[in-house]
Design a protein that fits this description.
Layout lengths: L5 E2 L1 E3 L4 E4 L2 E4 L3 H19 L9 E9 L2 E8 L5 E2 H4 L6 H20 L2 E2 L8 E4 L5 E4 L6 E2 L13 H4 L12
Antiparallel strand pairs: 1-5, 2-3, 3-4, 5-6, 7-9, 8-11, 9-10
Length: 174
Amino acid sequence: VSYTAKVPVTYLDDTSLSVDGMVLSLEDEKQMRALRHSVMEQELLKELQGAAHIVQLSDSYFVAHKRWLCNISEMSRAPGQCLSTMLRSPLNHYNIGKILYDLTNALSTLEDNGIVHRDVKPLNVLYSAQGKGIATLLDFGFACKEEGAPFFSPITPDREYLLQGTSEGRSYVG
């Protein structure tokens, strides 16, 4: 398979999928799990279309090139800069309150939809202090439906990953 354009992909079973009508078998369980995981993130974001303070998925598709199948997620541009970078300088009381208020609204929306983010940290929040200020929750790579619901994922991030961008761990930003 050698495409550079969008191609339709359908899951056939636990180890195979159809790419533009051609059946591919993924013998490596890690490959199939990674592919399913990225599709799950896209499906959850589709459920959250239009939700305030949550990054918006603008398009998702597969691109096949030579022997690689890439799952692409395009997100709408969210205003602001990474909160972990902003926390290097003091924030005023208004901005702290606004960030907490917006994130509380985002988490409430997730709860209403039966979704657990599982990776809320400053590295996954954008904040713009322009105007009245707006915070946006990003990175739904570890998000899942509540246990037993469609898209439930037993994949759990490890401690080292969770500490990225926190005071306990190294920040990988700037």
